[in-house]
Design a protein that fits this description.
Layout lengths: L14 H7 L2 H5 L7 H16 L4 H9 L7 H16 L4 H22 L5 H6 L4 H14 L2 H17 L26 E3 L2 E3 L13 H5 L5 H20 L11 H9 L4 H8 L7 H15 L26 H5 L11 H4 L3 H9 L9 E4 L12 E4 L6 H4 L14 H12 L10 H7 L5 H5 L1 H11 L5 H8 L13
Helix pairs in contact: 1-14, 3-4, 3-11, 3-12, 4-6, 5-11, 6-23, 8-11, 9-13, 11-12
């Protein structure tokens, strides 16, 4: 990406790579059981696609991205529009691939879940712009992204002022980036740097004035990248952000940084500062060290130098809070083996009891629920409980509605009762037997629709009807 956005023959600093490689947020979610690592890689794919919307491999890869996170369907649609405007033709292959892949997944969801969206969508689909702006500031402020964008805007103005007389750079659709193959024969590669046939590396403003004047810093493409990032950031702000630092803004954050690729190289090229060859390398090291020094306000110090005290700030937690095991102190480099439950899983599977579940459990936590693989768990925060996810209730923190916990206990009492047959009709049976609290009786019609989704029989016609049935939000009990 940086090579595509840099002038040919320029020194290389690669600001995006230096800025992201040691960034705390990017590193926290570069390996994860979640989809966030792939989302960060997808940001670079979108940036490459904006530069070359005709490339079929990128079109197919972008068609996969809505399967990573549902909001990326918005960026996929905007990318279709961009390719249409740029190529003066609708990219049918890309559109068909998107319809086929996303449509197949939606079809599977209808067949298996009788619903269009995952349960967490309904839990987190609220409107809390104020908290969302706080979440945006928590990420951008931690890594000084607003300062970086401002400095690069000034850099763009300086580069454009330095534009040599001749053809305007932003109007050159046949810039050096799109030079004919014969123009590339003037240089050859030695190692990783371009070298002229004379053996001298190009420094400063090289080439004839017309070629220098035609160098394009691709303002339009960079603005499209920022537009794609803003579209996802706006959605995240709308739902109030996330309970974890950086995670929901991983895609727009990386894409914003990608939009800055090659600008430093253009500045070095324009101002003739490429003679000092170690300069870009030293600059890259400085950028990496500065990025490495940033850490979120939820920690009282940099985590590289040992365990730090973790606190929730502005209703936002950090990944370090979940990395710690609450019951015992684990070594930082060997915790994986100590929390592994594969042996327990195999023992349970080989027991041959014939029962799919050992019983019913109740949990109001999310980081340790994986241990209850052999139980039917009622998750009191609504992450895996369809009824609780649709209760109309204000969030205490993003995706955390603590008022759901007593309601989860009510559901748990019904699910574990030996007098209730688990499955369709259990909530009406609980109401008829006087075992259900008033809020279940008052919302029984809505709950029974959700019950049909939960215990569907994979009948295609019935599941299609249920998938496009959108019941109202459940009214919680009135506060005393």
């Amino acid at each position: 990406l940086n090579r595509r956005l840099s002038p040919p023959g320029s020194c290389v600093l690669n600001f995006p790579l230096c800025y992201l490689a040691l960034n705390y947020g990017a590193l926290c979610y570069f390996t994860s059981g979640l989809e966030t690592p792939l989302v960060q890689v997808a940001a670079v794919l979108y940036a490459l696609f904006v530069l070359n919307p005709r490339r079929s491999s990128l079109q197919l890869l972008l068609a996969v991205t809505p399967l990573l996170r549902h909001e990326l369907a918005l960026t996929f649609a905007l990318s279709l529009v961009w390719a249409w405007l740029r190529n003066r033709a609708l990219p049918l292959r890309m559109a068909l691939a998107g319809v086929l892949l996303t449509g197949s997944w939606v079809g599977f969801r209808i067949y298996y879940y009788a619903d269009l969206f995952p349960n967490t969508f309904y839990l987190k689909n609220v409107t809390d712009v104020g908290q969302g702006l706080i979440y945006l500031r928590d990420t951008a402020g931690t890594y000084m992204l607003h300062v970086v964008l401002g400095l690069f805007c000034l850099l763009v103005l300086l580069i454009r002022r330095k534009q040599p007389p001749g053809r305007a750079a932003d109007q050159s659709n046949h810039a050096v980036h799109r030079a004919k193959p014969k123009a590339k024969a003037h240089t050859r590669r030695r190692g990783r740097r371009r070298v002229h046939p004379t053996g001298q590396r190009p420094t400063g403003l090289t080439g004839p004035p017309a070629a220098v004047a035609s160098l394009d810093i691709r303002i339009r493409e960079r603005l499209v990248m920022l537009l794609l990032a803003v579209s996802i950031a706006a959605y995240v702000v709308k739902i109030g952000g996330d309970a974890r630092h950086y995670r929901f803004l991983a895609f727009p954050f990386c894409l914003c940084v990608c939009a800055l690729a090659g600008l430093v190289e253009h500045a070095l090229f324009r101002f003739g500062l490429g003679a000092f060859r170690p300069g870009p390398a030293l600059g890259g090291i400085l950028v990496g060290l500065c990025s490495f020094s940033f850490y979120p306000p939820q920690l009282d110090g940099h985590p590289f130098f040992g365990n730090r005290k973790h606190t929730i700030v502005n209703k936002i937690s950090d990944a370090s809070g979940h990395r710690r095991n609450r019951r015992e102190t684990l070594p930082p480099w060997g915790s994986g083996a100590q929390i592994e439950i594969k042996r327990r899983y195999e023992e349970s599977r080989n027991a041959g009891s014939g029962r799919p579940y050992r019983g019913t459990g109740f949990s109001d936590r999310c980081e340790s629920i994986y241990e209850f693989f052999d139980r039917r768990v009622v998750h009191a925060l609504g992450l895996t409980e369809p009824i609780l996810a649709r209760v109309q209730m204000k969030s205490d923190r993003p995706a955390h509605k603590y008022g759901l916990i007593p309601l989860g206990q009510d559901i748990y009492a019904i699910v574990k009762s030996p007098e209730i047959v688990f499955g369709r009709g259990m909530y009406r049976s609980a109401v008829d037997q006087g075992m259900a609290p008033p809020w279940i009786a008052n919302n029984l019609d809505i709950i029974e629709v959700l019950e049909q989704k939960m215990f569907n029989t994979h009948d295609p016609a019935e599941n299609l009807r249920l998938a496009f049935t959108f019941p109202q939000r459940i009214r919680p009990p009135a506060k005393p």
